[in-house]
From TrEMBL:
SUPFAM superfamilies: ALDH-like (SSF53720). The keyword Kinase does not apply. This is Aldehyde dehydrogenase family protein. The keyword Oxidoreductase applies. Keywords: Oxidoreductase. It comes from the Bacteria. Belongs to the aldehyde dehydrogenase family. InterPro entries: Ald_DH/histidinol_DH, Ald_DH_C, Ald_DH_N, Aldehyde_DH_dom, ALDH-related_metabolic_enz. Residues 27-476 form the Aldehyde dehydrogenase domain.
Length: 481
């Protein structure tokens, strides 16, 4: 029950390939373990080359069916899918908590967001618009009628990460179907079980055979994204893998939602209470495993002591523990190897002179809330994505030089700034080369309908139903002479 002090476990799940409407699993099986207890909670069937070929053929055939489906039918289908996912949300959330180590409260939130995301996609399915192009501006165009229309690209290959396995799958599956495409989904091998239950719910809603296919295993990914039957690749994950994908697929369009270093500013005129609470929570939630998590806090020297004290107080109130305990706010990292990597970054920073204000310890896959001050920008805990519950505190007198450094850095996902100054807010918006600037909010703020994504090494293209559908369709220009 939802109100239990501790959520009970569920039956082991087998994640299988979905090819043309049929579940199959001929390949090797891999254990999926609970990162908190180490117990096996399910298994994943690694997809074979034959399953890849079958999925490509099924998606290619289904793409014609999806393209011919009227928008209102696609919208109705997505509403049915949303209803089915919502009906299975509690089971999806429990499985997610077991396989990822995320707190059950966060898993329930995600399982509720996924159907909401799908409903947004349903609404956009009937809003795919082109535009009239006036040609009277030149003699050659006078008297002619011209339009631009948008058509589905065909087959979308979507690769999703472990940190939000269900809602991010919804962010790819929903827009693909809404735009009239077929999709081949490859979930993270670190979190395939909740995706299995999500896709089962999708199929229960009734969809054309082959419109949704699922493959498992990282070894299958290169052949998937480079296959000529795939018309667009949508990837959410690490920067190195994103670069490999982009360099391997030639002129094929690609949408990349990659990493960042979570810069958030606290200016001298900020609401310090709000800034401290939001910064602490958005640094630690999901154990820091969000590409936009608050990682680097830049605070004006005039509020350094007061803000630091408030931040530490808020961090101390966050409950780390058993992901299945409903009182837990932060669970584990995805596995012990990830925790070891994070601790290595923290230890190198301390060895180089950073001051450890909180945390800096590890138990298995769980890392304590860690706050570092006196951090030099060159330390990898500041200059590289940590992807763990770790935040650095850096002070400034003049804010413009920090703006320039962020704009010149390889990262450009989102930036938060707390200030009551309209002039400073506009300066941040105009000068920070990032995908988003959140005024009086942190770098991690996101709503599911917004255009979410980055620039530079942080990605290309945008997530969010309307904006993902723009990427998953192609323009076609026509003229009536």
């Amino acid at each position: 029950m939802v109100n239990e002090d501790r959520v009970t476990s569920v039956a082991p799940v087998l994640a299988r390939s979905l090819v043309g409407g049929s579940w199959c699993g001929e390949g090797a099986q891999i254990d999926i373990r609970d990162p908190y207890r180490g117990a096996v909670v399910g298994r994943m069937c690694v997809s074979t080359p034959a399953e890849l070929s079958g999925a490509l053929a099924a998606a290619k055939a289904a793409s014609a069916v999806m393209a011919a489906m009227p928008g209102y039918e696609r919208a109705a289908m997505l509403q049915r899918i949303a209803d089915s996912v919502a009906a299975n949300a509690e089971e999806i959330a429990r499985i997610m908590a077991l396989e990822t180590g995320k707190a059950i409260a966060d898993c329930r939130t995600e399982a509720a967001r996924a159907p909401a995301t799908l409903r947004l996609c349903a609404e956009e399915a009937v809003r795919i618009q082109g535009e009239h192009v006036p040609l009277d501006g030149s003699a050659v165009g006078a008297g002619k009628i011209a339009m631009v229309m948008r058509f589905p690209v065909g087959v979308v290959a979507a690769i999703t990460p472990f940190n939000a396995p269900v809602n991010l799958a919804a962010h790819k599956l929903g827009p693909a179907l809404a735009a009239g495409n077929a999709i081949i989904l490859k979930p993270s091998p670190k979190a395939p079980l909740s995706t299995q239950k999500f896709i089962e719910a999708v199929l229960d809603a009734g969809i054309p055979e082959g419109a949704v296919n699922v493959l498992h295993g990282d070894d299958i990914a290169p052949a998937l994204v480079t296959d000529p039957n795939v018309d667009l690749v949508s990837f959410t994950g690490s920067i190195p893998v994103g670069k490999k994908i982009r360099s391997s697929i030639g002129l094929k369009p690609v949408v990349l939602e990659l990493g960042g270093v979570g810069p958030t500013f606290v200016h001298h005129d900020a609401d310090l209470v709000a800034a401290a609470k939001a910064s602490a929570r958005n640094a630690m939630q999901l154990a820091g495993q969000s590409c936009a998590s608050v990682q680097n806090i830049y605070m004006h020297s005039g509020v350094r002591e007061e803000f630091t004290e408030m931040l530490l107080h808020e961090v101390d109130s966050i409950r780390f523990g058993d992901p299945l305990d409903v009182a837990t706010e932060v669970g584990t990292l995805i596995d012990e190897a990830a925790a070891v990597r994070v601790m290595g970054m923290v230890e190198r920073a301390v060895d180089a002179g950073a001051q450890l204000l909180r945390g800096g310890s590890r138990t298995g896959a769980q890392v304590s809330a860690t706050i570092l001050s006196d951090v030099h920008p060159s330390m990898d805990v500041a200059s590289q994505e940590v992807f763990g519950p770790t935040v650095t505190l850096q002070q400034y007198q003049e804010i413009e030089p920090i703006f320039r450094k962020i704009s010149e850095s390889p990262f450009g996902l989102q930036c938060g700034i707390y200030t009551n100054s309209l002039d400073l807010s506009l300066a941040a918006i105009r000068s920070l080369r990032t995908g988003g600037v959140i005024v009086n909010g942190t770098s991690r703020w996101r709503s599911d309908q917004m255009p979410y994504g980055g620039v530079k090494d942080s990605g290309a293209g945008r997530e969010g139903p309307k904006f993902a559908m723009r990427d998953m369709t192609e323009e076609r220009f026509f003229v009536f002479n």
